[in-house]
Amino acid sequence: MRAWRGPDEDPRPAADGAGLRGADTAAAIRDAGIDLDPEPPGRHRHGDLEHEHAHAHPHLRSEPDQIPVTGIVGAGAVGTALGVALTRAGWPIHAVASRDPERRERFRRAVEGTRAFAEATALIEEVELIVLAVPDDAVAPLAATLRMYSGQAMVHTSGALGAEALTPAMAAGTQVGAFHPLVAFADTERAVEALRGATVAIEGDDQLAALLARMAETIGAVPVRLAPGSKAAYHAAAVLAAGGFVALLDAIAELGRVAGLDERGSLAIYGPLVEQTLGNARALGIPRALTGPITRGDRGTLDAHLAALRAHAPRVLPLYRAAAIREIELAVARGTLTPAAATDLRSSLASED
Ligand SMILES: NC(=O)c1ccc[n+]([C@@H]2O[C@H](COP(=O)([O-])OP(=O)(O)OC[C@H]3O[C@@H](n4cnc5c(N)ncnc54)[C@H](OP(=O)(O)O)[C@@H]3O)[C@@H](O)[C@H]2O)c1
User: Fold this and answer.
1) Mutate to test the pocket of ligand 1, among 80, 134, 180 (most ligand atoms within 8 A of CB)
2) CATH class for domain 2-228?
3) Which residue in 123, 161, 260, 313 has its CB near the most CB atoms, within 10 A?
4) What is the pLDDT of residue 304?
5) What is the mean pLDDT of the segment spanning 120-137?
6) Which residues have C-beta atoms less than 6 Å from ligand 1?
7) Domain residue spans in the chain?
8) 252-260 LR contacts (CB < 8 Å, sep 24+)
9) What pTM does this model have?
10) Tell me: the pLDDT tens digits for 2-41?
């Protein structure tokens, strides 16, 4: 992974001090030994694109070195939060396209002064930078229905797709890229807050990447470029860290119910343990953060857990087993579990009754 800015450069300060959190994240990335050498700087201006190519159009154009006229397609979780964050940080959103009147109106209430369209084709007539914040599966089909004008750039916010998904919308003198914030967009205000200090994986040629880096820094985020071919693994890790972790919390809450706790009770009781474990992993490294019966080769406890799960929460069993197998590997590698004890534990996990 490659962060956009050099080690001694501070992120561009955002209007509301958002750059401070970005600086913290950049420092943590640097401390983790991740390559922070900046790419050769591109020109920071979208409007330098040639306009005399075919498929020219008199859409609104920014002045040199100004923020490009920006539009967002999709008023869902990501589109709305990005719209709010960018506008608050001084990067205006000129237009939004959403097919759903209610979502359109909600976006307009959240991001005042925005023009709202039902179709992306109408938005393209007005803006220079088009952000497609639509579901992954809709990105390529939607791009295939659009054709950019020279001087325009289009990016999507997907973590799973490369910029090439947008190629069908390209014409001479246009650019495509990606702008993927590593944030769980569960709630608009919480996501706007979380964008400060989050990493944003950007893709595009040097000129577009420089513009996207500036856009990320405006909202206090840290732009990064991923090594070629690594995007799917990077995104799968993000999905485990967000959705996968929620699945784990759900299983914890299910077991909590067996012990008489409601969801709030489980979060109150197990939440501090989760935070402590994350803190231990950060301070000591992941292997040393591993605690519990597996590290000790405590087969009796493991068997008791499996019996309780079979009796009271059988749907949790597959997740418990999968985690235990990974824990055994960690404990063996750490040297706290002998291979013989590991075999014992694995046979408990493999037994069906
Ligand atoms: N959610 C996250 O935590 C997260 C994090 C990082 C990145 N992302 C990525 O961001 C993108 C958007 O995710 P999201 O969570 O914001 O999705 P979402 O909440 O479901 O919103 C998607 C938006 O796209 C519009 N849309 C759906 N299908 C469309 C189509 N065929 N043509 C045009 N518009 C369509 C929706 O409908 P309307 O047009 O009716 O409004 C909606 O406004 C995805 O690529 C996702 O992988 C998500």
Assistant:
1) 134
2) alpha beta
3) 123
4) 97
5) 97
6) 74-79, 98-100, 103, 133-136, 138, 142, 157-159, 180-181, 183-185
7) 2-228, 233-350
8) 254/313, 254/315, 254/316, 255/309, 255/312, 255/313, 255/316, 258/308, 258/312, 258/313
9) 0.85
10) 665 433 444 444 445 455 566 777 777 777 766 543 344 3
